[in-house]
Design a protein that fits this description.
single chain, TIM Barrel, 17 helices, 9 strands, binds coproporphyrinogen III
């Protein structure tokens, strides 16, 4: 099958497809018993991410079970701080825990020198997936956007307000800029290498973009994203990039005008009539089924699925969730949505 027959690539090229391509954020994960089985064989989550054989297997599981049109490689956004030399662990029922980077000295101690070596297993995963995926399935690589990764690096763990990183950005803008600059460089070279290993589309997760005040949003979300897009394009001009500036509301327009990404993943709170009228002319819209509608299932799930399909009929569109799959999700509900979208 030629590249152009892949639905996700067609949609990102701006074409309305006969039906939208469908994939789901966190499609590999704890909601699947077969994932939990493989996951249980490695105690450290990062080591699991760096074991290509296991990462390939859990990436393929949702493709086999549901027949998604795209496959997102299994890894995590926090492999970047790990590769830069920051101590990163994942703790059961807590999530990621990092040794916080809170001053200029700590930023200076980070280094991108060993980055490509450290991340080589991720590229092996992509190579294995390229060879193993069915021909109609598009392979997606990804990274965290600098702002979101920095919130974990500075705060040391997830936080509802991202206060630690926002405060550092106000109090020590030069220190924070140095951290963002390092992340821009590291993320761009990581994504470029992903394309060389077989990624056909890239997604940049900026999960916490919504906590930034408008001028801060320009500085720490839009500008770094634009630099990464330019750096990737300079080497791989044709690879489509999807941005996910979660929670930014109407600022998504600025984001698209400035960064030049081909796709935008919109969160559950986004009005999809507005997205169709305002964002669709600028980029291919992806989203935004509520992950909790997917947990609930039933007729309401069909209704929500149909509403999205009708809203975007005749336009380039990628069916997805507004955020990642919840671990309580019954797999049968995922199958229900895939069947309906692909019917
Ligand atoms: O989407 C996929 O299937 C690909 C794999 C993927 C994971 N994380 C695997 C994972 C992707 C694309 C991510 C992105 C990611 N990681 C984001 C951005 C998107 C989002 O969800 O907001 C963020 C903020 C992270 C950081 C992260 N990783 C957190 C906060 C946690 C703990 C919370 C949780 O859900 O457990 C993780 C762990 C993680 N990453 C798991 C998985 C499947 C669960 C851990 C496990 O299986 O032991």
């Amino acid at each position: 099958m030629s590249q152009s027959e892949k639905l996700l690539l067609q949609a990102l090229a701006g074409h309305a497809t006969a039906r939208p391509p469908i994939w789901m954020m966190r499609q590999a994960g704890r909601f699947l018993p077969e994932y939990r089985e493989v996951r249980a064989t490695t105690s450290s989550f990062l080591e699991f991410c760096y074991t290509p054989e296991k990462a390939i297997e859990v990436t393929l599981q949702p493709i086999r079970r549901f027949g998604f049109d795209a496959s997102i490689m299994f890894a995590d956004i926090l492999v970047i701080p790990d590769a830069l030399g920051q101590k990163v662990t994942f703790q059961e029922n807590v999530g990621p825990v990092l040794e916080p980077v809170t001053d200029a000295g700590a930023v200076a101690r980070l280094s991108a020198d060993g980055l490509q070596n450290h991340l080589a297993p991720v590229y092996e995963t992509l190579k294995g997936l390229s060879a193993a995926l069915p021909p109609h399935v598009t392979l997606i690589g990804f990274a965290g956007a600098p702002w979101t990764v920095a919130t974990y690096m500075v705060g040391g763990r997830g936080s509802p307000t991202q206060a630690a990183a926002r405060l550092l950005a106000y109090r020590e803008p030069q220190t924070f800029q140095a951290l963002i600059d390092l992340l821009v460089e590291a993320t761009a070279s990581y994504l470029i290498a992903q394309v060389e290993a077989g990624a056909e589309v890239l997604q940049l997760f900026d999960t916490w973009a919504g906590s930034l005040a408008p001028d801060q949003f320009e500085k720490w979300c839009v500008a770094p994203t634009k630099k990464i897009v330019e750096a990737v394009r300079a080497i791989h001009p044709d690879v489509p990039i999807i941005g996910f500036p979660k929670g930014v509301g109407t600022k998504a327009v600025r984001f698209l005008q400035e960064t030049g990404v081909q796709g935008i993943s919109v969160d559950t709170g986004t009005d999809m009539i507005w997205a169709r009228e305002t964002l669709s002319p600028l980029a291919t819209v992806q989203g935004n089924l509520d992950p909790l509608a997917l947990v609930a299932g039933g007729a309401e799930l069909d209704r929500a699925t149909d509403a999205l399909l009708e809203n975007f009929a005749g336009r380039p569109y990628i069916f997805n969730l507004g955020h990642g799959i919840e671990k309580e999700t019954p797999p049968e509900h995922v199958a229900q949505v895939v069947r309906r979208v692909q019917a």
